């Protein structure tokens, strides 16, 4: 019995393009051609094609099928590896569904992890929001939770809006005055949420956190705002406590 390319594709439940691709990548041997140039497939080709189709349906990639060679009758090791990969994929997709449910229910942003998304419901400047997105990628789980708790539970301060609106050419007295008024608020935050003051402790990439935060701050805030941050840091350093050291 012999079949054409179209017939063998229909028997295997696949497409002409798939059959041709299997030839191209070496998974399916090329059959002999008739005098008219048409390919003539036999039972051996059909069995091989059905096995390829079955493994593809199970989730094997073509490169992995090729690596199996002739061991495609019961590739136990490959099946166990694939099973573990599928289990991890299912777990990831389940987490994604939970997060999507929260986003749809609470109307929270999609660019932040679930710990931080509800906390950012309060009004944030574009710069603060962008910095939060960046920090969410480098903070460790404990510090991320501390950051989320701080954002959620700390009321806005009158100086927040002043800092957001500070022009790049603000004079020195204005910058000094603002820093002196913000510093007590930051000191209170560090006392209540010591984890925020030491973000590098359980960071995912501890060696990069300072560099990443610094680069983000330089790009997101204007020179006057950065100067105020530096002044606040200096003011807090003058009255150190455990969480600031």
TrEMBL record:
PROSITE patterns documented for this protein: HTH_MERR_2
Lineage: superkingdom: Bacteria
Entry-linked InterPro entries: DNA-bd_dom_put_sf, MerR-type_HTH_dom, MerR_fam
A matching Pfam family: MerR_1
Domain HTH merR-type: 2-71
Entry-linked SUPFAM superfamilies: Putative DNA-binding domain
Organism: Pseudonocardia alaniniphila
Record keywords, A-Z: DNA-binding
Residues covered by region (Disordered): 153-173
Protein name (Swiss-Prot/TrEMBL): MerR family transcriptional regulator
PANTHER family: HTH MERR-TYPE DOMAIN-CONTAINING PROTEIN, REDOX-CYCLING DRUG-SENSING TRANSCRIPTIONAL ACTIVATOR SOXR
Acidic residues bias: start-end ranges: 162-171
SMART domains: HTH_MERR
């Amino acid at each position: 019995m012999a079949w054409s390319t179209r017939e063998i594709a229909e028997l295997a439940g696949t497409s002409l393009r798939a059959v041709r691709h299997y030839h191209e990548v070496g998974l399916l041997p090329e059959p002999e051609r008739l005098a008219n140039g048409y390919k003539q497939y036999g039972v051996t080709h059909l069995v091989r094609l059905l096995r390829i189709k079955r493994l593809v349906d199970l989730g094997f990639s073509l490169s992995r099928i090729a690596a199996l060679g002739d061991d495609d009758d019961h590739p136990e090791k490959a099946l166990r590896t694939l099973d573990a990969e599928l289990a991890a994929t299912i777990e990831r997709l389940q987490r994604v569904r939970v997060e999507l449910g929260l986003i749809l229910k609470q109307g929270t942003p999609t660019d932040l992890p679930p710990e931080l998304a509800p906390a950012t419901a309060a009004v944030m400047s574009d710069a603060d929001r962008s910095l939060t997105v960046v920090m969410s990628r480098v903070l460790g789980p404990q510090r991320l939770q501390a950051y989320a708790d701080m954002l959620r539970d700390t009321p806005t301060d009158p100086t927040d809006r002043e800092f957001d609106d500070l022009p790049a050419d603000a004079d020195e007295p204005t910058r000094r005055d603002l820093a002196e008024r913000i510093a007590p608020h930051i000191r209170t935050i560090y006392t209540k949420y010591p984890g925020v003051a030491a973000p590098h402790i359980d960071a995912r990439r501890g060696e990069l956190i300072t560099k990443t935060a610094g680069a983000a701050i330089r790009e997101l805030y204007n020179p006057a705002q950065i100067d105020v941050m530096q002044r606040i840091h200096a003011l807090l350093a003058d009255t150190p406590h455990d969480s600031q050291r």
